[in-house]
Amino acid sequence: MALEIERKFLVVGQGWRAQVRRSVEIRQGYLGGEGGRASVRVRLQGNAASLNIKAAVVGRARTEYEYDIPYADGREMLDTLCVGRIDKIRHYVECDGLTWEIDEFGGDNAGLVVAEVELASLDQVFVRPPWLGREVTEDQRYYNQYLALHPYRSWPDAD
């Protein structure tokens, strides 16, 4: 079993941009709605495609499986089978020995910027970069499947 340990934060300001090592455009969609035991995602990233299955729980640790699939299959699934989509640019930032993934959302989620960091353990201590805002790890609204089905622009209380 694969276990992902991750923390999510809102991003404040633009200070992180000077630290970006590389960026990649990501398009992804979900093969089912809410309420199941898992989310199933198709992702196109560069010339690669993948199928990802994550436990549908909110929190720091979730079971996760990811498989490469042919790009043409991924594009067809995204275009014909997905119930919700996300478009974003993922920026990679190295900070104090950790790689931060900063997702800058587009489309109906434009204006939302979320930083994620994968950790080795639930109790791993890390230095908070100055551009980290409020932690949203426990808030399901900031999970990509929720954003695909309930875009940020439609939230009455968007941050």
From TrEMBL:
<feature type="domain" description="CYTH">
    <location>
        <begin position="2"/>
        <end position="149"/>
    </location>
</feature>
<feature type="active site" description="Proton acceptor">
    <location>
        <position position="30"/>
    </location>
</feature>
<dbReference type="InterPro" id="IPR023577">
    <property type="entry name" value="CYTH_domain"/>
</dbReference>
<protein>
    <submittedName>
        <fullName>Adenylate cyclase</fullName>
    </submittedName>
</protein>
<dbReference type="Pfam" id="PF01928">
    <property type="entry name" value="CYTH"/>
</dbReference>
<dbReference type="InterPro" id="IPR033469">
    <property type="entry name" value="CYTH-like_dom_sf"/>
</dbReference>
<dbReference type="InterPro" id="IPR012042">
    <property type="entry name" value="NeuTTM/CthTTM-like"/>
</dbReference>
